[in-house]
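Contributing: when you submit paired examples, paste them exactly as shown. First protein:
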Amino acid sequence: MSPTTKYPYMRTTTLWSQATTHDVDFFNKYRTVTDFEQLVKGAREAAKRNPELNEEWFNDTTILFIPKDQRQTLTEEAFAQQEVIFKERGLTLLAAPWQYAFCCKADHLAGGGLSLAWD
């Protein structure tokens, strides 16, 4: 993975509605197969080193809820926003576009999905 690989990150911690999270949900319209393989390898290695992490702690399941015709736009908006959540060698996590993150949280709180203890 190149040192500039970036992943927009969608999680309610970016909206400060919870102090911590059990997983990291990411998306990137431009992710390559090689990028994905590197991410899986890194996530597995991190889970081996930290017993509090499960296999799903770093995942892209959020992409299933983003319409295909919006994925490129959301990725580009996150890149333009440049709100860095995490940065280490080889990986940068960006906040998802704020309008998208807010709408997702509002939809979730209104009952559009599973209600969780921290909501």
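Second protein:
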Amino acid sequence: MESRKFLLSMLLTSLFVVSCSTPNQKIIDTTTNNDVPTKLNSIIQKEGQLSEENINITVYKSVYPSVVGINTTSITRDYFSFNEIKGTGSGVIISKNGYILTNYHVVDNAKTLEVTLSDKSVWPAKQVGGDKDKDVAVIKIEAPAALLTAANLGNSDSVAVGEKVLAIGSPYGLFGTLTTGIISSLNRNLPAEDGTVLKDIIQTDAAINPGNSGGPLINSKGEIIGINTAIFSPNGGSVGIGFAIPINKVKETLKNIQASL
């Protein structure tokens, strides 16, 4: 029988911080883009019920400016030469100061990082900190605040099985791709090949593929409730079993990073 593997790369289990940011800057922007749930609730109250299609369109338009593509370059060495490896992933802007949330495995061992914003502008990025054990990392770009829209982080403790969710990211480098689905289960434990376990994560049937890692899982109010991190697949593509780190767990890691800056 063909073995099935979780497509998740996690190598170490320690929290680290690289001092490359301005002291006292807030990682999470709590004052930007918080009107998205209010707008959606207003539409629902006005029209009685918001159609699924309109939810998809409204949430996508609201959250898309906060989603970024991440391109990485890493160097490996064999006996005879150095080899350059390129990778792609996704992320979500969490502060107009340029802080971006993603998966640790997206940026781990990267020699260079480039971030593509929703306006297609490309910016060099530096890693600020992260937690390999929880597969959470923060990177930073020095882009004008006018180009940055911070996402609204929701409350993953209030989500329920069957709830509608949306994922935006860059599967196979296709920037800004939207997929939809539901929360299939909660409190899953996800083992990686190195023996590390991500605990109490969200399972979804929204299509998640390589390149979606680090992008947001979003509820129908336009709130980020998780960070897409892995899929369960026999062949490397989506089979409707994807996993996201609950945003409340991510917030705990962000507090640790913030305290260390």
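If you have annotations for the second protein, write them as plain sentences, like these:
The longest helix spans residues 247-260.
Residues 1-24 have pLDDT under 50 and may be disordered.
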